[in-house]
Fold this sequence. Notes:
Layout: H1 17-22, E1 26-27, H2 30-36, E2 43-46, H3 48-61, E3 65-69, H4 76-85, E4 89-92, H5 95-104, E5 109-112, H6 119-127, E6 132-135, H7 138-147, E7 155-159, H8 179-189, E8 195-199, H9 210-226, E9 232-234, H10 251-264, E10 271-274, H11 278-281, E11 285-295, E12 298-301, H12 310-314, E13 321-324, E14 334-340, E15 349-357, E16 365-368, E17 390-393
Bound molecules: pyridoxal-5'-phosphate (PLP).
Amino acid sequence: MFKSDHALLARPAILPDSTTRSGLPAFVSIDDVLQAYEGDDAIYVLYPKRIAAAARTFLTGFPGKVLYAVKANPHPAVLMTLWTSGVRCFDVASTREVDLVKSILPSAELYFMHPVKSRAAIRHAYAEGVRDFSFDCADELYKLLEETGYARDLNLHVRLALPKGDAVMPLSGKFGASRDEATDLIKAARPHVAMLGLTFHVGSQCLNTTEYGRALAWARTIVNDAGVDIDSIDCGGGFPVAYPGMRPQPMGDYFSAIRSSLADYGFDGIQVLGEPGRALCAQGGSTLARVELRKGSDLYLNDGSYGSLFDAAQCAWKFPVKLHRTTPRQVGKCTPFRFFGPTCDSLDVMEGPFELPDDISEGDWVEICHLGAYGQALASKFNGFQSETTVAVMA
Ligand SMILES: Cc1ncc(COP(=O)(O)O)c(C=O)c1O
């Protein structure tokens, strides 16, 4: 995929250990990537330094244990970068995620926080040392107890359904126990478990810090209803990223809101968990897509909604874009464009508008930024279009 001119590669001396060990080709800049690239597909870029910086923000600011939600981006280099930055706990949702994390980071602590699991997945995870599981109904609780042989060392977390909030991507429609159900589940689980917790998710890309306080107030109501003590509270994910058109408050405001609500609702003194996905890796990844054809203000790219641009297509998110050229020439003024992906499907369109120089043309590359979470992770092989090239850029 790359010309064997290693002068273009970043010198090992400037690479963090995680990047070297992950085996990713590493470059100093996007220009260096493009100068060296000989392939025909889009290129997925990781910026390990940005992922490490996001990890530091959480490890120093979040008032509890930080669990990385692996679904956001399971790339080995992301997992290793987080590990070398100090993240030790991982929220997994499937047997393959369990095996992936264990194979790369054997001493990682895994939390299986998907509320619906197959019996085989429970048995496998327990055999691999997983002790923390979430559930939101009695049938799942008994599945967990049966498949672990009524183990006495389970830490179980009741997933709450939250009253409707205002996250950009609500998650309460599919999972979660209602107030009455949760009250019954707490009472039913308590005698069987080593540790009992509550968990919730305010919805992904939550733009309002007060949502966490509302959820903690709701959790307090349920604990009071049950009249049973809990040992942990898991504030889930939802921590936002500054995509164009969205202006989240600083991350520190989220941490302060959670810290003060934990105290207000009497949860200080118990274990606190959080499961950030998006906020740890979104800004640490981008896609380099080549313009294959221009028709007026429509650009046909070699990546699209079946690649890493699902949210740009289905949710009409306007990701930040930058033009890159292999032969530099003067850049025109910016004008709005729409993107089409490479497949034959008419859903493969990203309306944007994306502002790019008006002289953009076939062969130019567009870097679509902030795709490190739920971008590269969602890419499929539909229609024979897929990128198998991921690189690290040490900027
Ligand atoms: C159980 C659970 N935890 C954590 C996350 C990560 O959420 P986010 O990426 O919004 O931080 C998700 C996302 O779907 C989830 O379902």
